[in-house]
Amino acid sequence: MTRPSAGRPLWDAVTASPAAEPPATPAAPARVRGVLDADVTVVGAGLAGLSTAYHLAAHDPGRSVLVVDAEGPAAGASGRGTGLLGPRVGPSVDRAVRRFGPDTARRMYAASTAAVERVRELSAELGVDTGPRDAAQVVATRTAAGLASLARQAAAYRELGLDVPVLSAAEIGALVEVPRHAGLRYRAATLDPAELSRALAAACAAKGVRFLGNSPLRAVRAETSGGVRLVFPGGTVRSRKAVLAVNAAAGSLGLPVGTVLPLSVHAVATAPLPADVQRALGGDTRCALIDAHPLGDYFRLTPDGRLVFGGGRPVLAPVSDDSAATAVWAGLEQRLRRLHPALARAEVTHRWAGRIGMTGDDLPVVGPLAGLPDVWYIGGCCGHGLAMSVAHGAHVAEVLCGGSPELLPWHRSRAPKLPLPAPVRPLLRAGLSRMARAARREA
Question: GO MF annotations for this entry (predicted)?
């Protein structure tokens, strides 16, 4: 039996398609050295940053666009996800109706479904597999509390005139052979997030976008004559505009965007499963299943028949030791083996974690920094950023090119500020643990 690769994402071992190996973005890109200039500098080579650069280059090919990353494309959260591409942004639809009204809630959901379709289109252009067009993402439950929550959401979708089918236990069983009482079916997809990131980086390079790496951002300073100066360990970049697609690093950089909590979330993956087990777990339809509880488990199959399984207790970063991650991984493996009888002895080959940015009101932050109108921030997708990160990048690029795209509740300059002094952090960790235990009890 192969020893699980702790901390190494499954995608590191997957052979990328030819389109995913960007010749102009080497594995060890050159660092920022001396003083450089650019029209727009994007900090962060994840999906949000790469989408910004891609759409900037598409809108205005003559604009000088520079992407700088602390490491390189796909090295951060965008390359460490689980590849679930579904229409989720902000609070659940019933809560969105209560908070923002039916019209805005409808537009929020429409924006998220459009984001999914845009990623599918972009993936097709870049040669990244997203599975069959009729693939589903099922949010399901087997508890009374989960049924009540899904019923409220189903009623809200009906009142808004949105097509989100309710599935019975039998209908869920026809997709995946796991016991659930009911669920909601969304049009969705699955993909290799690191491959998409690398392919998007290659497309940016082909459009003339420059890349520099191994350069963590240290400071952001306004220039007296306009524009911004970005300070890195080896030099500075002077830029007319800057986009900080740094997600959960906002706090460590002191950015005035409210509180974007850095949380580590975890996943495991198995060796390729036998064909009959793949069929039982949705292999023919590429269906992904997500527990309705906010910290519940979820799973999907990869094209080569591996089961990717995630969820459980997020860990407040930074983590002082590996014991918390080890405990979360152990819990995931135990629940994976209970998912289906055929998984009792499944070989787990990969274990990894990725960092997400969580806000106090479940909404991302996409807007200019207070006091620094030439600097934009993108982050806080609350673990649902695969589709929306691409959409956020396109939005910011359109604004920087003089457009006036539709504004939604997450187009703002800051999230609510939460008190996070050192004495409070253990309380927050305890709260996350309680939520995770509740999810396990419901499961």
Answer: oxidoreductase activity
